[in-house]
Design goal:
Structural class: alpha/beta
Distance between the termini: 67 Å
CATH class of the largest domain: Alpha Beta
Shape: globular
Oligomer: single chain
CATH topology of the largest domain: D-Maltodextrin-Binding Protein, domain 2
Helix content: 40-55%
Number of domains: 3
Strand content: 15-25%
CATH superfamily of the largest domain: Periplasmic binding protein-like II
Length: 295
DNA sequence: CAACGACTATACTTTTACCA
DNA sequence: TGGTAAAAGTATAGTCGTTG
C-alpha cells in the first residue's frame, strides 16, 4: 500500500472510474498504468475496493476513500498555504468581469494584499458546474432554482428578461411578436442550457407559443452585435447601469419571470472565509450603486 | 440480436531513477 | 557507465451496455 497507489485510487474513486480518472488527473498518465496500480493495491490488500461497471465503491473502498480523501483532496490548498499565498477562486460571466468586477477586485486586493485571486470568466452553466466541482470558491451568476444544500446563494438583484431589436425594425413592442401564432423573426439567444433561455422557453411553452433560436451565441455582447446588424431578435437581460446602443431598442416582456443575479459560494467551505465574506460585501456595495429601475 | 462504443485488463516495450 | 527494478507507455483483447 504505497502512497502513489493510494493517490491513484483517490482519483479513481473521485472520478468514479479508471478512464475518467486519467482524463481528469492533474498530471498526464495513461489508463493502463492507473489500472495496474490500483489493481496492485487491491492484490496487496487482498480486498476488492470497487465494482468496475457500473462503478461502485465496496465498503472497504469507502473506508479507504474516507481515509485518503482529506489528504489528497487538500493538496492544492496546502501548497498555496505553504507558498504563503492563500488563494481565492472567483468566477463570473465575461460581461460581469468587464463591466462590474474591476472595482470589487481592486477593493479585495486592497483589503487582502497577500491573497492570490484566481479569476475565471465562464458562462452561467459552466459557472455552476465549476462551483459544484469545487473548482471555484465564489461565483457571480444567475441563480438556478434548484441548488444543492452544499451551496450558499445570496441574491444581489433581480434582472428582467428583455428582447432586443434593431431600432429600424418595425417591431415596437413584444406584443407585436405574440400577435402572430408563428413567430417568423429569427431568435438570437444564448445556448439552450443557459438559465435565461430555459426560463424564456418555459414561459413561451406555457403560453402555447413556439419560438426556437436560429442563432446561438455564447455571449450577450455577440447577441447585441447581431441584433444591431439586423439578423433577428435578441434574447437578453437588462444589465443595470448600461444603456442600449442607439441603434437598438429594448422591449420589455410583461409578465415574464425575472432572473436572480447573486453570489454563490460553498456553504461548508472553510477555505478563505474572510475573503469570501469581504467579496460578498463588496459585490453588494457595488450593486447598491445601481438602484432598481421601476419601469 | 448484431453492431458499436466505452471501459478495463493484460502483454509487451520503453523510460526513468537509483546505485555500484 | 551499465545493470536493475519500478513505473509508464503502446497495442490490443475481452466485457458490458446501448441502440437500431
Amino acid at each position: 500500500m504505497n502512497p502513489h497507489q493510494l493517490e491513484l485510487f483517490y482519483h479513481v474513486a473521485k472520478s468514479r472510474g479508471v478512464t475518467r480518472a486519467t482524463r481528469q488527473m492533474p498530471y498526464g498518465i495513461q489508463q493502463p498504468s492507473v489500472s495496474a496500480q490500483v489493481n496492485a493495491l487491491e492484490r496487496d490488500l487482498g480486498v476488492t475496493l470497487y465494482e468496475r461497471r457500473p462503478f461502485k465503491l465496496t465498503p472497504a473502498g469507502e473506508e479507504l476513500f474516507r481515509f485518503v480523501e482529506p489528504f489528497f483532496g487538500s493538496i492544492n490548498e496546502v501548497r498555496a498555504k505553504l507558498q504563503g499565498a492563500a488563494q481565492f477562486r472567483i468566477g463570473a460571466s465575461p460581461i460581469v468581469f468587464r463591466d462590474y468586477l474591476p472595482p470589487v477586485l481592486e477593493a479585495i486586493q486592497r483589503q487582502f494584499p497577500r491573497l492570490n485571486m484566481i479569476l475565471r470568466a465562464l458562462n452561467q452553466p459552466e459557472l455552476i458546474d465549476a462551483i459544484e466541482h469545487d473548482e471555484l470558491d465564489a461565483v457571480i451568476s444567475l441563480i438556478p432554482d434548484k441548488l444543492g444544500p452544499a451551496f450558499h446563494a445570496v441574491d444581489i438583484m433581480e434582472l428582467p428578461i428583455i428582447l432586443l431589436v434593431a431600432k429600424r425594425s418595425k417591431i415596437k413592442s413584444a406584443n407585436d411578436l405574440w400577435s402572430n401564432k408563428k413567430i417568423t423573426e429569427p431568435l438570437i439567444s444564448l445556448k439552450p442550457n443557459e438559465l435565461i433561455c430555459q426560463l424564456f422557453q418555459e414561459t413561451l411553452t406555457n403560453r402555447g407559443l413556439s419560438w426556437l433560436p436560429k442563432l446561438e451565441m455564447d455571449s450577450l455582447d455577440l447577441i447585441e452585435k447581431y441584433v444591431e446588424k439586423g439578423f433577428g431578435v435578441g434574447l437578453s437581460i437588462r444589465a443595470p447601469g448600461r444603456t442600449c446602443p442607439s441603434t437598438i431598442r429594448a422591449l420589455k416582456l410583461a409578465d415574464f419571470p425575472t432572473v436572480r443575479l447573486g453570489v454563490i459560494s460553498r456553504s461548508e467551505s472553510k477555505h478563505e472565509p474572510e475573503a469570501c465574506h469581504a467579496f460578498l460585501e463588496e459585490v453588494r456595495r457595488q450593486a447598491a450603486r445601481f438602484p432598481p429601475r421601476k419601469d
